[in-house]
Hints:
By secondary structure, the protein is of the alpha/beta class. It has 2 domains: 63-212, Nitrogenase molybdenum iron protein domain (Rossmann fold), CATH 3.40.50.1980; 223-260, no CATH class. It has 10 helices and 7 strands. The chain has helices spanning 15-23, 40-49, 74-85, 100-116, 120-130, 139-149, 162-167, 182-187, 223-239, 243-260, and strands at residues 33-34, 54-55, 63-68, 92-97, 131-135, 153-157, 173-176. The protein has a 5-stranded parallel β-sheet, sandwiched between helices. A two-stranded parallel ribbon has the order 1-2. Strand 3, helix 3 (74-85) and strand 4 (92-97) form a beta-alpha-beta unit.
Amino acid sequence: MAAAGADEIYCMGGVQALAALAYGMDGLEPVDMVVGAGNRFVAEAKRQIFGDVGIDLLAGPTEILIIADETADPFILAADLLGQAEHDPNSRQALVSLSHRIAKETMEEVERQLIDLPTKDIASVSWRDNGEVIVVDSPEEAVKVSDEWAPEHLEVQTENWRYYLDNCTNYGSLFLGEETTVAYGDKTIGTNHVLPTMRATRYTGGLYVGKFVKTVTYQYANKEGSAKIADVCERACNYENMLAHGITCKIRKERYLAKRD
């Protein structure tokens, strides 16, 4: 943060940090916007302070969906599923497999890896309560299931991953091929890690520079243009029974037409 040129840095976290940012505290003026991911408590805090400040999106708890075919390695599939399961008991994981064998072996591998996983107390609950394994018959069906699930993180471990790059549309960030795992996106590879969850990828992407750009508009009409616009706008206002709105158009139409005549 210092290298990036941050003006002020406060080392604090959790719901109380969001409250301090939104409403201020001794030495910290309230901010205009709060961004970032978190657990369900952080997400709820962001929901409650929205309006007093702007937010990027409601991100968290984390989730992953993996599309796999018969070429995928169940050992790696299981590791990637558990990599997200350890985040939070409410994390969501799904395997969409084009192979019954891969689906079965991956479920068995998850149970084997959980035995020695240091974070198994969290990951096992998350997998038990929120894990899904879905077997599909075709790449087209895999795309359909994935887009309906609309995951935060989408991994594709198939022979032809380009098909899914070209056809999947609802995801926060896409990780293509066995060589690319979600942890890379979380920590090192460069793409932003603050991503939409709970099917919000249907309508938004993740945090990016555009979230900090405020778009405003302005209008200007000359007298001749205003008279023409007013004629149409007055009818629209009156049709909606917004009669005072209509009057603001009518007086301009009459004034500017009279001056032109």
